[in-house]
From TrEMBL:
Residues 200-221, 252-278, 297-318, 331-357, 363-385, 390-413, 613-623, 628-651 form the Trimeric autotransporter adhesin YadA-like head domain. Residues 456-496, 572-598, 702-743 form the Trimeric autotransporter adhesin YadA-like stalk domain. One of its GO terms (cellular component) is outer membrane. This is Trimeric autotransporter adhesin YadA-like head domain-containing protein. It comes from Bartonella birtlesii LL-WM9. It holds the Pfam family YadA_stalk.
């Protein structure tokens, strides 16, 4: 390592901007740098110390024939107006052919251009030679450089005849070029062939380098600094003898911009382009990476071929695919952000995070490996998750939302049901015709699985509004009410509850009565048989029994003969009884998911979420996703089973797939291999369950805004529960001949009773069978059979005898 230290201590030399000391320092450096041997010069007094030590100095240089190494002038002007060194304070380095010169304080020697007596005239050319280039006796600062092996100056390193500087400024120029007179202090540095500087306080280094405005720097082959205070660093090497293509230069166009790299370009204020062919267009834009581009203000592009094309956009990522058109990391929309190799944020305000994550439209968010948010306002989180329609969301690996406003929640879930869906009405046993928000959805569906891959929604609080989800506890409460049924009794005795599946069998106690029910309705008719058998019939004071007919105060027809009188017997009509029953709601109709949840946590106590399972997701402080495809969203949320979903703070999803649902009919969990009854994925939990002793201390949530479910695997809302309640309560209506209708239910039981002693009703003590019959003794106003009438006046036989209170009329018949 060579070292050179020179410190000026003399004060009797002329000290000006370009004094001997400056020239000597440059000449000493040139000799030092050309010397292959170590040379050390410590701080010394130029007058006293240099002359004492220079005799021992050695310089090794080109070994051509007798060449002078260094020649210079000081500022002494002789009578011939030629610039010569003063006699007693300069030193000459020896040429190869000259004898070494020893200099003392009294010697007169020229340090830089003193011609030695033994040197020939033709070898007086200098390696570094100051030249006068103005006509007003100004100090010389231009330096010409000669070839080491020839006397002629190197053409492109010789000064140009037009080079000049202003007396108020300070410039350094090496090479053939021009610095125009700026009319003030220039203070420029120009090194290289055809260098151009058009302003003050600037630097241009390299072949054809240019500076257009002040305070700028251009370094490199054809580097061009255009804007004020700009910096252009980068070379464009020669390409044979062909001219360079247009724009094939490193150019800093913008004010205070920086372009570094081959063909790097900045075009706007304070922009930065760093890398080969990097381009920064837009005020304050930053581009870093080979062929990276920014085209709008405040944008940032980092990485090979990264493109930030929108205002305030950010593109960070590399891995350019040359075979695909525009297949590189791109932030195209204003305020968009693309983070990840070949990720694309194309819409206004969009965000794409992950390898080949795509956020295509306005406000779209795509996070995950190959995730796609294809529509405005869509959100996807998870590997290969996809949201196709406007405002749709998909959370979880391979989750997909294809309907407008739909939400797919959980790994492999599919949300494909659009808004305007009508829920199933258990009363109608088909889709409802109601148009309220409780029965007709206003948004796309929330899906937590597929038709063949279902999840339970657990830890659900009881719903309050018609659009809230219903939990099993509410279903059980309804079941308890339904199980009460309604009570049946006869004459207030032997009452027994009739359950929802109970049967009331009405039967006649004898052949004297007939009971009929419509084939397609629940209307029941009671009537006397066309032929009846009784022990006695009494009407008024008239009696008909096995002995015959006895008319009080009138004729009688008995075994003894005919006693006058005849009575009519007419059919007695009984009222219709109608009953309506509905099917019980099954557990699968309670299956309904909540809407999507987005949680943001911020604070000093935030605990990073934990992920252990493959393709799992954990969002929120201290959230934990501990199994494959599990999702935990919310502070302290935990999903510990495969495909489980913990939604909301403090929620725990610990119920695995394969859980059988509760069947209100059997009053136990049913083991059916049906997705509606048997879950195929880990459960979705929106709370947590905790049991201390025999008491449940769970944390639950309501699920609100739930549309009525349609399919067996859809969630049920309160409106459907109320509809089921309306179908069960009142249970059925009771009327006679369509009059005096009343409801028969658990709170208003039906009691059957005979209207008179003519009928008898009996019911089994342990069953629900009721028997209707005529009393053994019947009292009526009139009995009619065919054209024969028996009443209080007697018996009148059509076209035959009469026995009445008026007497006996044989009617032409024998008595």
């Amino acid at each position: 390592m060579k070292k050179l230290h020179v410190t000026q201590k003399a004060n009797n030399l002329k000290v000006s901007r370009y004094s001997f000391v400056r020239v000597f320092s440059l000449a000493t450096a040139a000799t030092f740098l050309s010397n292959v041997s170590p040379v050390y010069a410590k701080s010394f007094d130029i007058i006293e110390k240099v002359l004492q030590s220079i005799e021992k100095a050695t310089a090794t240089y080109s070994q051509g024939k007798d060449k002078t190494i260094v020649s210079t002038y000081d500022n002494h002007i002789n009578s011939n107006d030629s610039r010569l060194s003063k006699a007693n304070n300069l030193m000459a380095l020896n040429t190869a052919s000259a004898q070494k010169v020893n200099i003392s304080a009294a010697d007169s020697a020229n340090l830089m251009e003193k011609t030695l007596l033994d040197a020939e005239e033709k070898y007086k050319k200098s390696l570094i030679n100051p030249r006068s280039f103005v006509d007003n006796n100004e100090d010389t600062v231009i330096i010409d450089v000669s070839d080491f092996s020839r006397n002629n100056l190197i053409t492109r390193m010789s000064r140009n005849a037009g080079l000049q500087r202003n007396t108020d400024g300070t410039s350094v120029v090496v090479g053939n070029g021009r610095i125009p007179n700026t009319g003030g202090q220039t203070d420029n540095v120009a090194i290289g062939y055809e260098v151009k500087i058009k302003a003050v306080d600037s630097v241009a280094v390299g072949y054809g380098s240019e500076v257009d405005k002040k305070f700028s720097v251009a370094v490199g082959h054809l580097a061009h600094s255009v804007g004020q205070g700009s910096i252009a660093i980068g070379g464009e090497g020669r390409q044979d003898a062909n001219p360079l293509p247009p724009g094939a230069r490193t150019i800093a166009n913008g004010e205070e911009s920086i372009a570094i790299g081959r063909r790097a370009k900045t075009n706007s204020e304070a922009s930065i382009a760093l890398g080969s062919n990097a381009q920064a267009t837009g005020d304050f834009a930053i581009t870093m990476g080979s062929q990276a581009q920014t085209t709008r203000e405040d944008s940032i592009a980092i990485g090979h071929m990264a493109h930030a094309l929108g205002k305030s956009s950010i593109a960070l990522g590399s891995e350019y695919n040359k075979t695909g058109e525009k297949d590189y990391t791109t932030a195209k929309g204003d305020y968009s952000t693309a983070l990840g190799a070949v990720s694309k944020a194309l819409g206004y305000g969009s965000l794409a995070v992950g390898h080949r994550a795509y956020a295509v439209d306005k406000d779209a968010i795509s996070m995950g490996f190959y995730s796609k948010a294809n529509a405005e306002g869509s959100i996807v989180v998870g590997a290969r998750a996809e949201a196709v329609q406007k405002n749709s969301s998909a959370f979880g690996t391979d989750a997909k939302a294809t309907a407008v406003g739909s939400i797919a929640l959980g790994a492999s879930s599919v949300a494909d049901v659009s808004s305007q869906a009508f829920g199933f009405d258990p009363l109608l046993k088909k889709a409802t015709t109601a148009t309220s928000s409780a029965w007709k959805s206003g948004q796309g569906a929330v899906s937590v699985g597929t038709l063949d891959k279902t999840r339970q929604i657990i830890n659900v609080a009881a719903g309050s509004k018609d659009t809230d989800a219903v939990n099993v506890a509410q279903l059980k409460s309804l079941q308890t009410y339904v199980d009460k049924g309604w009570k049946l009794s006869v004459n207030g005795k032997n009452d027994k509850a009739i359950g929802i599946d109970g049967t009331v069998d009405l039967a006649a106690g004898s052949a004297n009565l007939t009971l009929t029910k419509g084939e397609k309705d629940n209307n029941i008719k009671f009537d006397l048989a066309r032929s009846i058998t009784v022990d006695k019939i009494q009407t008024g004071d008239n009696t008909l029994d096995a002995t015959g007919l006895v008319i009080a105060n009138g004729p009688k027809i008995t075994t003894s003969g005919i006693d006058a009188g005849g009575k009519k017997i007419r059919a007695i009509a009984n009222g219709d009884i109608s009953a309506t029953s509905t099917d019980a709601v099954n557990g699968s109709q309670l299956y309904q998911s909540t809407r999507g949840l987005k949680v943001y946590s911020h604070g000093m106590d935030f605990i990073d979420p934990r992920i252990k399972g493959t393709n799992s997701i954990a969002i929120g402080s201290n959230a934990a996703s501990e199994n494959q495809n599990a999702i935990a969203i919310g502070t302290d949320a935990k999903a510990s089973v495969q495909n489980g979903i913990a939604l909301g703070s403090n929620s725990i999803a610990d119920v695995e797939a394969g859980v059988a649902g509760y069947d209100p009919i059997t009053k136990e969990n049913v083991n059916r291999q049906d997705p509606a009854w048997h879950s195929t994925l880990g459960a979705l939990s929106i709370g947590r369950s905790q049991k201390i002793g025999n008491i449940e201390y769970g944390q639950t949530r309501q699920i609100v805004g739930v549309a009525a479910g349609t399919k067996d695997t859809d969630a049920v809302n309160v409106a459907q529960l109320k509809a089921l309640q309306d179908a069960i309560y009142p249970n059925w209506e009771l009327s006679v001949d369509g009059k005096n209708k009343t409801n028969v239910n658990a709170d208003n039981p039906m009691d059957l009773a005979a209207g008179s002693a003519n009928l008898t009703l009996t019911k089994g003590e342990k069953d629900n069978k009721v028997k209707f019959d005529l009393a053994r003794s019947v009292t009526v106003d009139k009995i009619q059979t065919g054209n024969n009438i028996l009443d209080a006046t007697g018996l009148v036989i059509g076209n035959g005898p009469k026995i009445t209170t008026s007497g006996i009329d044989a009617g032409g018949k024998k008595i």
